[in-house]
């Protein structure tokens, strides 16, 4: 088994373990529903927390699965995301899939370099002139940086979205691109088909 398949297998095993535990708690909740109503509230709170953890693991699993289909350097991207997240440095990375991205964006600075963790991190340093924009990745190459993405036309009433989120959603509504985000608070998400999904870099 190669390293990539091993990583996927570990994530899959962890996800199954978490979901199985939730299933066990749910069965117990149903069985004791009328017997201990105070415990029921505690169990529901526990289930909610476990579901949140499961969403993060599931997102990480599927993100890496998708990334590995379109670049051999998905580990370098993952490492960069982890480092940027730990340093709370914002980032926006577009992975081109089947749809051409160039016609949809205001193109920034050409890079045309092989993907590497140090290069991705250096692009998003706060003092870098390229940090305020998106990196475009195609296959195993960083094509360009400081690209401007189209913003979504959606109006969100439940919470405010920052510029990176609006740009990620906007591009993903117009293409099949996979867009990775690191927020200034260290949280990470990916965007696909107009939807944001949180994931863990740990």
UniProtKB/TrEMBL annotation:
PROSITE patterns for this protein: DAC (PS51794)
Domain DAC: 44-202
Keyword flag Nucleotidyltransferase: yes
Domain of life, source organism: Bacteria
InterPro entries in the record: CdaS_N, DisA, DNA_integrity_DisA_N_sf, DNA_integrity_scan_DisA_N
A UniProt-annotated Pfam family: DAC
Known catalytic reactions: 2 ATP = 3',3'-c-di-AMP + 2 diphosphate
Entry keywords, A to Z: ATP-binding, Nucleotide-binding, Nucleotidyltransferase, Transferase
Name this protein carries in UniProt: Diadenylate cyclase
Protein's organism: Paenibacillus sepulcri
